[in-house]
Amino acid sequence: MLVTVIIFLREVLEAALIFSVLLAVSFRLNLNRKWILPALLIGICGAAITAYYLGEISNLLDGTGQEIMNSAFLLSITTLLGMICLWLASNVASTCQPGLSLAPANYIIVILIMNTGLAIVHEGSEISIYSYSFIQAHDSYLSLIIGGGIGFGIGASLGAIIYYLLINLQTKTLIKVAICILILISAGMSLQAASYLIQSGWLPSQLPLWDTSSIVSERSLLGQLLYALIGYESTPTLIEVIFYFAVPVFLIPSLFVSIYVSHNKSRKKPAS
Amino acid sequence: MPLFLLLNLLNTNVFAETPVYEIRIKDHLFLPSKLDIQSNQKVKLLIINEDATSAEFESYELNREKIIMGNRKGVIFIGPLKPGVYPFFDEFNPLTAQGTIKVK
């Protein structure tokens, strides 16, 4: 049952983390809340659909369809999170004025919906697959429900704690912390996508660069939590490391550019 | 889109060269449960799940995990690996379905 708990916890935590960060940011910046419900609906329906068709999907691309689909989800989420970070950064200047309500272009709403939806689809489909397979193997709903419930509960609680920690921050601090968390999550997902692509032969496989499993083992609870939060990998290969660091290396300068551009824009407009 | 096509081209070339090893899953057992492969070489594992229930081929040492549903096949690439012994198991039946890959 411990395995069930950990798997549910890991998947739920990944989605809950993204969701709580975006929720906190969205409330603090007075965004229109209309993205939340569509995101949840798309996520849950999408997860159910992909889990239902998993057999067919797996057989695509010479038996690697599942990995390719997952890496497509992960890379899309990474990209969308990057866009959200850029948009957040561009608003650092304007949030200096308290009480200012942001009216972002509709595309941000769409991005929020797609992003959260995809995250839920990805995690949800993994949970559904695991649950379906578990029930087949053990013919016992009870163990799954209890283990899954515990894992889900812990993951959701951690997400809620993070939400409340975030919502109590100053707006400017909140934005900075949110960006940091989102960068870490994106980097982790980018690495996971690389792992899937290596496993399915689309990227070359290599010897691992280092082995930190003696420090933090992937099998341990801490290892699994770190995997969910920052994509911890005890034996990464060069390509995986590249994919991981490509995210902050690309995003951080872009964030500064974004702040600079929006700062100049607000200077040109007279303060109202 | 062009990148996708290019990757697929690279893909087929690689498929032509890598050796393929079959591992069947029957009655929650891996057959064969011990595999010998060459070191420093990319290898394709074709996992055929002959049970009706799903199995998850997983190995921390190999850094691979994949769910293969009942009566379906899955493909996992491993290597190049350093010489050693790499255990793997079925996460859904970890007590019975275990195996090792010995790399020389």
Layout of strands and helices, then pairs:
The complex is a heterodimer of chains A (272) and B (104).
Chain A: H1 2-28, H2 36-52, H3 54-63, H4 65-90, H5 106-138, H6 141-167, H7 171-199, H8 221-230, H9 238-268
Chain B: H1 2-17, E1 20-26, E2 29-31, E3 34-37, E4 43-49, E5 55-59, E6 64-68, E7 73-78, E8 84-90, E9 98-103
Parallel strand pairs in B: 1-4, 3-9
Antiparallel strand pairs in B: 1-2, 4-7, 5-6, 5-8, 8-9
**Biggest sheet of chain B, strands in spatial order?**
3-9-8-5-6
Which sequence of SSEs, written as H and E, runs from N to C of chain B?
HEEEEEEEEE
Radius of gyration of chain A (Å): 20 Å
Distance between the termini of chain A: 60 Å
Mind telling me the C-alpha Rg of chain B? 14 Å
Percent of residues of chain B in helical segments?
10-25%
Most extensive interface, residues per chain? A-B, 34 and 35 residues
Morphology of chain A: globular
What's the pLDDT, averaged over the residues of chain A?
83
Q: How many strands, which pairing sense, and closed or not: the largest β-sheet of chain B?
A: 5 strands, mixed
Elements of chain A, N to C (H/E): HHHHHHHHH
Largest sheet of chain A: none
Q: Percent of residues of chain B in beta strands?
A: over 45%
Number of distinct helices of chain A = 9
Runs of chain A in which pLDDT lies below 50 for 5 or more consecutive residues are: none
Structural class of chain A: mainly alpha
What is the count of β-strands of chain A? Answer: 0
Cα separation of the termini of chain B = 40 Å
Helix content of chain A: over 70%
